[in-house]
Write a structure and sequence with these properties.
Layout lengths: L8 E4 L4 H10 L7 H9 L3 E7 L2 E10 L4 E9 L8 H14 L9 E4 L6 H5 L19 E3 L5 E3 L1
Parallel strand pairs: 4-5
Antiparallel strand pairs: 1-2, 2-3, 3-4, 6-7
Helix pairs in contact: 1-2
This protein binds coenzyme A.
Length: 154
């Protein structure tokens, strides 16, 4: 891990498709087709990118209807920069962004799908590991169209 002085981490609100896929690749995630990635990034409700030496070191996005539902996704810190509290700064910014607009006596739901064994990181911010109360487990499915045109859910 590279130790980065806090003052050398800056934040911006945009990222190129190439840099986005570069961050994804750094943590072993599948790459997103450029056309699809561009749509995804442009439709972010809130996008925050941590910069170190003028290069993206991490990112986070919120996708939302802008009203009641908020979903935190694409939380990535490059492996060499992990452990510098960049992830903490990104999630804190996401929560601040939503909480600043809450009126008195209002409640909204913020969701996310934790990657395997990252639950503890999110629990520090108050997220509950599901199932919890009357909430069941989160669910997801990969949908792939293969080269022969066949669509498969795995
Ligand atoms: C998860 C991730 C974003 C954390 O980013 P980070 O910048 O390394 O995290 P921070 O330095 O802010 O860590 C904050 C705290 O969480 C702890 N933490 C981090 N990852 C953890 C984990 N997997 N399990 C338990 N605790 C963890 C840290 O030890 C630290 O504790 P402290 O406040 O007591 O010092 C980063 O590890 C990552 O990008 N991983 C690969 C991609 C991924 O899985 N993303 C999550 C998608 S849901």
């Amino acid at each position: 891990m590279k130790k980065i002085p806090e003052g050398e981490i800056t934040f911006t609100n945009n990222i190129s498709v190439t840099d986005y896929n570069e961050l994804r690749k750094s943590v072993g995630w599948i790459l997103v087709a450029p056309k699809r990635a561009e749509i995804a990034l442009n439709h972010s409700f809130y996008l925050c990118v941590a910069m170190v030496e003028n290069k993206p070191a991490g990112m986070m996005r919120i996708i939302s209807d802008g009203g009641y539902s908020f979903f935190i996704t694409d939380v990535i810190v490059k492996p060499e920069y992990q452990g510098n509290h960049i992830g903490t700064a990104l999630i804190s910014k996401a929560l601040d962004y939503i909480e600043k607009d809450l009126l008195e006596d209002e409640t909204v739901m913020i969701s996310l799908m934790s990657a395997y064994e990252k639950e503890e990181f999110y629990q520090k911010f108050g997220f509950h590991r599901r199932p919890y109360g009357n909430h069941g487990s989160g669910m997801s499915v990969w949908v792939t169209r293969d080269l022969s045109g066949h669509v498969e859910r795995t």
